[in-house]
Amino acid sequence: MSQKRYAAITGAGHYVPPNVLTNADLETMVETTDEWIRTRTGIRERRIAAPDEFTSHMSTAAARQALANAKLAPEDVEAIFVATCTPDMIFPSTACLVQAALGAKRAYGYDLSSACSGFLMALDAGATAIESGRVQNALVIGAEKLSAVTDWTSRDTCVLFGDGAGAVVMQPSERPGMRSSYLGVDGHQADILFLPAGGCRLPASEKSVQEHQHFIQMAGRETFKVAVNTMVGAAQQALARAGLTEADIDWMVFHQANKRIIDAVAQRLGDGTTDRAIVNLDRYGNTSAASIPLAFSEAVADGRIQSGNKILMVAFGGGLSWGGAVVEWL
Ligand code: ACO
């Protein structure tokens, strides 16, 4: 009988653009206040990519750091999975552009589109590729230039989003680093969080531009309600599949959409505290598919996440889509 193969995250990296957009800056752009944004979302500032800086550039920077962290060279990489809803272009995929920029000569790759849940979908794809034995070294990236699809005249959404990237390296391991993965989608509520134009349903036209259809549309209040319940359910499923309880978890790395959502999910899952929740949305806002790997990589880099720690990752986003994963940082 062949021995079971396991997958683990063996390196992490991240990148954010240097340009900071503060809540005070937004006060000059739309009718809002720093106080409203801080108390309703927890966000203080976000990063905005330069006009000539794209998702592939941010992905590549994060990937280089993750490879260095895992002590691998670009030539070692065999697969590149990029989760993004803001690819450089419809095709070729961002993964192809990252492959070229890195010089990852042996790699295949593709993009995954699942909005804010994209990274956990890509992590599952990476783990499956490793566990199947087809791939030895995979790069899993979450990256977004949301500033390009944000309506900067709408206070309902423009205060929420930011740009950035996070990446992890996955490799085979003797013990399971990827302890569980649980994913789900429900297209019945596709219209509470979506980007209507730019696909074949509503190609770019003068009308689509005039009507701001190339920007993220969101029913915030409805999304909030579904997000909390769905994330709690996804967390419970991921824990059950790992054979663990919430008490076994050292750190919670949740999608960074709203501090109130993170707190509500953390409180409902466990002992009522939020101490183990890693939060960086005060500095970066909601970076969609980038938010989990960005928060994870920062916590690895600053030493909060230590060897042997078990991390619960949970995401929720447009689709609707959601995911949970339990990862041990070996
Ligand atoms: N500044 C000041 N006032 C504002 C702003 C703003 N930027 N935005 C809205 N308001 C006003 C509204 O007009 C409303 O005024 P009214 O009471 O006079 O009608 C009031 O503030 C309250 O609005 P709500 O929408 O009820 O505010 P809420 O507390 O729900 O917060 C928010 C809005 C932050 C969007 C919240 O609902 C949220 O975080 N939703 C979930 C977002 C999310 O999880 N997205 C998923 C991932 S994103 C992705 O997949 C790309």
Task: Please characterize this protein's 3D structure.
The chain has 330 residues and is of the alpha/beta class. It has two domains: 169 residues, 3-Layer(aba) Sandwich (Peroxisomal Thiolase, Chain A, domain 1), CATH 3.40.47; 149 residues, Thiolase/Chalcone synthase (Peroxisomal Thiolase, Chain A, domain 1). It is built from eleven helices and 13 strands. The protein has a five-stranded mixed beta sheet, sandwiched between helices. Strand 12 and strand 13 form a beta hairpin. Helix 3 packs across helix 4 and helix 8 runs parallel beside helix 9. The protein is globular, with a radius of gyration of 19 Å. The mean pLDDT is 96. The site of acetyl coenzyme *A has 23 residues, from helix 2, helix 6 and helix 8.
Number of domains: 2
> What's the number of extended β-strand segments?
13
Q: Measured on Cα atoms, how large is the radius of gyration? A: 19 Å
What is the number of helices?
11
User: What's the average pLDDT?
Assistant: 96
Q: The biggest beta sheet, please?
A: 5 strands, mixed
Structural class: alpha/beta
Strand order of the largest sheet: 1-7-6-4-5
